[in-house]
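Encode chain A's predicted structure.
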Amino acid sequence: MPGIYIWTLDFTDIGKTALEREPEDVFSVIQEKISAPRGEPLEVGMVGRYRNVLIQDVPPELTRASAVRVEEMIKARNLHLEWPFLCATLFQRPLYVGKAINLAARLKAHMKSDSHLSGELERLGLTVNDCAVLMLPVASPDNIEELVAAEEERTRALRAAGAAEPTARNILSAGGSDGSDEDDDGGGDLDAEDDDALFSDSEIDAAAAPELRQVDQLVRFAESLTIRAAHPLLNMKMD
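Encoded structure for chain A:
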C-alpha cells in the first residue's frame, strides 16, 4: 500500500495507565516527555571570553493549571483521559516524514536497530518504542507489486546492458526524505541505502508503467508538501 507516513512522539501510553497512577507521577512523566531538548543546538556562540550561549529547540513545560486539571481528572476517574494524549500524539510537530509505495516494508526497515532513523532517534534520546507512526495511504493499482517487480527487472536489464539507469526498488521499500539530485540542500537522507545500488532514490523514468509513475508522483509531492508545512525535526533533504 503506497502513501506517506509521519513519526511522532507517542503520548498514548501515558493515557492508558494514568488512572492507575498518582497524579503527581503522571504529570511528571508528561513534563519529562515534552520538555526534553530536541536535537543538537541550533546555534552555539560566545559571550565575551568566558560564557557559551546555546540556542536549542526545547518546548515549554505545562503550567500549574494543567497539573490541577490532570489531578482532578484522575481523582474523578475520567474515563476519557486517554483522549488528550491521543490528541498530542496526532497533532504535534513530526519527528520525521517519509513516503513509500509499500508502507509496511518501509516501516519494517525503519524499525531495525541499525537503520538511519533509529540512529537519529537515539541522538535525540529516543527509540522507536517511544514513537507512534501515522499513515495516510493513497489508492493504488491492485497489481502494484507486479508493476514494481517488472520495473526492477527492466532496470536490471538496462544495467546489464551498460546503461546507468536508476532502479525503482526504492519505491517498494525505501520511501523517505524526498531527495532528488538536483535540489539537495545538503544534509543526509535517512532513507538512503548506500549498501545496495538497487535502493536509489531517483524518480521513476518515462519508460515505466504509467500507473507506477502516477503513484510515485503522488507520494513524492505529498511528502514534499507535508515536510514544508510541518517542519519535521529529522528530515534533511526537501526535494
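The CA atoms of residues 141 and 211 lie 7 Å apart.
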